[in-house]
Amino acid sequence: MQVAIVGAGTMGSDIAQAVALGGDAIILHDIHEHTLRQALGRVSRGIDRGVALSKIDPVDGRRAKRVFTLTTELAGCAGADLVIEAVPDNLEVKQSVLRALDDTVRPDAILATSTNILSLTALAAATRLPERVIGLHFFKPAAIMRLVEVVRGDLTRPDVIERAVELAQRMHKTPIVVKDAPGLIVNRVAQAYFGEALGLLDEGGLDVPTVDRLMEAAGFPMGPFRLMDFVGVDSAFDVAQTLYEATYHTAPYRPHPRLRRMIDAGLTGHKNGRGFYSDG
Amino acid sequence: MRVLIVGEVPFVDTLAGICRAKNHKVDLFLSDDLEDQAVLDGMVRAATRCQIAIESLNESQSGKLWLVEGIEANMPDAAPLLTSALAASATEVAGWTEHAGRVVGYGLLPPFSTTGLVEFAPALQSDFEAVSTARRFWEELGFDVVRVPDAPGLVRPRIVCGIINEAVRTLAASGIPANSPANPNSEYPANTENIAVIGCRWMRRPTRLGFTSRSNTWSTPHTSTTATSAPTTTSPRRRLAIPRPPFMAQDMPANLPTVAPIPAPTFPCSTAPSVADRAAAYPIAASGRMTALPKERSYNTAAGRMGTRADPLSKPTPSSSRWRITPSAAARPARG
Question: What is the pLDDT of residues B145-164, one digit of tens each?
């Protein structure tokens, strides 16, 4: 299968690495050539690291590095059997990319979006063939995390879901088919984790490291605040905001004001070195 | 140190094992066994000689009150009472006791071991001596002691409860049948719990976060500790028939049912009688014998004593007797 990935940022390049290791050919697209070069370097380093840790077979690693085609033109994706868009999570941006892809790729090609907060059905509505649009929600870092939420839109055809599931399996992922709903599944459950921890901070007497330490001692790989730094405080806020709006302002999903203040202050987590913790 | 431990399995026997491994003399009583008057009397006797008491009954506040009041009335004055701050804060529990200063809260999330961490929550009334003794006790057991504000549930149970609730809500809204394949030709672990485990790399499924199976509980080879342990009072009945709070679940399905749940029975419930339910239906009288379980009527409390404490006794008597006034047949109210 020829897989095109539109958007060569961190998520796009991580998805590309996993697809390449699954044995499928990749067309990697970005409007900036230097972004494409950076993505290829990231993929190469990721594979090398996997080989060094014996997580990736050296032969598979060498082969995976040779399956990339880079392009800055969307028309370069025309021959793809499945296109995964991994552009920023913005409704207008994603709709315009999907609309352009809808005009570019073959009618039997699958269009996949990597959103985790936008409505798949709303995105699919921007295309002429919404029944071929599907969601593939990967988790950071996408090259490593096993789970993929395969999102079924209201109009998605069953055979489209099956082909997406098969692709995810070739990527050595665990695909879970879920219906299009705000926050899907993982993000909803994670919001409970974040929300209660933030509430505890409000009550006083606790600090961020103590709460993380308590939860990590209970078996969580990351405490809630360390995890928010990892995924991005802004991402956590966006998910909460989307859930809150989509559930008609249901109280448990109300974004915490502290997150808003942190975003305003630029404390968005690892991506800029400062969040609940400071990387420095 | 002689330690009295009273509460629910699997929590208390795990804790007892850890205490024995540190050469403490343990008197262990399971809450369900306290329905038996002889066992209850044994617990009262053990309370009179304990140097520290650990209570872990969280099924309801009324059941907890009944137990705390009973233990505390018989403990030596200098012994601290460590109370599990799940169903009630340590401050609230301290308010039930005559010597509030000795009450110190704690929180453990099973499965736990000596490499684990205990949430340490002194009550507002806790005195310095009790807090110091309690902290030293946990540290000597090998726990990492983290002081947290005293509030029902403390920290970890509150967060875990939130996750469990959201997992259940999400499952209900997701349209995913529990443990069903994503498509007919494949076998994906398609349920909310597994998704959370894989997606978040959580150690356990959300609804199992508070679950410890018997096989997972900490155990010490008893042969290595029996020589230094006091005889331990335990019951052959190891499983409680009573409903459990979320963190003490004995059995829980791996996957949630897809059918609509059966509505919870309304009180009184004949299918799941519990210490707590019956205790809740019965006014707590501090005076009088600590009876195994309140019956439908107050046959065990002397007439005129309901809701009041016994007068101080000038003659030294065993505490268990101090807490006991056996009603005479004449004082017993007639049925009907």
Answer: 999 999 988 999 999 988 98
* Residue A113 near residue A136, CB atoms below 8 Å: yes
Of A108, A79, A101, residue with least CA distance to A6: A101
Name B84's bridge partners. B106
Residue at A99: amino acid letter: R
Separation of CA A163 from chain center: 19
State residue B195's pLDDT score: 52
Helical segments of A148-223, H only: 158-170, 186-203, 208-217
- Bond prior to A158 in cis (omega within 30° of 0): no
Indicate which of A151, A161, A189, A193 best probes the interface with B, i.e. most B CBs within 10 Å of its own CB.
Answer: A189
CB-based contacts of A23, cutoff 8 Å, min separation 6: A63, A170
Of the candidates A150, A195, A218, the beta carbon closest to that of B162 is on: A195
Size of interface A-B (CB pairs under 8 A): 133
Active site residues of A: 137
Closest CA to A233 of A257, A216, A217: A257
CB contact under 8 A, A197 and B190: no
Neighbours of A207 (CB within 10 A): 12
Assess contact for B138 and B120: CB atoms under 8 A: yes
- What's the CA gap between B62 and B69, in Å, rounded? 11
| Token reading at B76 | 């030596």
Alpha carbon of A240 to those of A100, A244, A280, B44: distances in Å? 30, 6, 28, 52
Residue B277, Cα to own-chain centre: how many angstroms?
Answer: 15
The Cα–Cα gap between B19 and B225 comes to 10
Dist CA A262 CA A256 (whole Å): 10
ipTM of the complex: 0.78
pLDDT digits (tens, 9 = 90+) for A190-245: 999 999 999 999 998 899 999 999 999 888 989 999 999 998 999 899 889 988 98
Q: State the greatest distance between any 2 C-alpha atoms of chain A, in Å, as a whole number.
A: 59
Q: Which residue has the tokens 């110091």?
A: B132
Q: For the segment B44-74, what is each residue's pLDDT rounded down to a tens digit?
A: 999 999 999 999 998 888 889 999 999 999 9
Under DSSP, the state recorded for B246 is G
The Cα–Cα gap between B130 and B90 comes to 13
Chain B partners within 8 Å of A192 (Cβ): 162-163, 165-167
Rounded Cα distance, A57 and B146, in Å:
44
Omega cis (within 30) before B294: no
The number of residues in chain A equals 280
Contact B203/A174, CB-based, under 8 Å? no
| Max CA separation in chain B (angstroms) | 80
B195 three-class SS: helix
Beta-bridge partner residues of B81: B53, B103
